[in-house]
Design brief:
The protein is of the alpha+beta class and 91 residues long. The protein contains three helices and five strands, in the order βααββββα.
Length: 91
């Protein structure tokens, strides 16, 4: 099954700011997005549903400190990244 990433303008702005602050994470970030599109359920992404005010959304890990929150529409094979940042910022 092929998945497709759809980036919003708001996410692009957040990602640009994130990568400007953390240029050392560009390779890991790019790899995470590629893996997310290839197989969002790959164990290294640590995909998990969120609870509370972010209920209905999911999170994947870039590394142990940084996450990408996303809306995962599995039935439509569409993945929409929402935010990127450290654990405290995106949760």
């Amino acid at each position: 099954m092929a998945y497709r990433l759809r980036f919003t303008e708001a996410y692009d702005i957040r990602a640009k700011k994130f990568l400007k602050r953390h240029p050392d994470l560009l390779k890991q970030y790019t790899k995470t997005l590629a893996l997310l599109e290839a197989n969002p359920f790959h164990p290294s992404l640590r995909l998990h549903p969120l609870q509370g005010r972010l209920s209905g959304m999911h999170s994947v890990s870039i590394n142990l400190s940084y996450r990408i929150t996303l809306e995962l529409l599995v039935t439509e094979t569409l993945i929409i990244p929402i935010d990127v940042g450290d654990h405290d910022k995106v949760y």
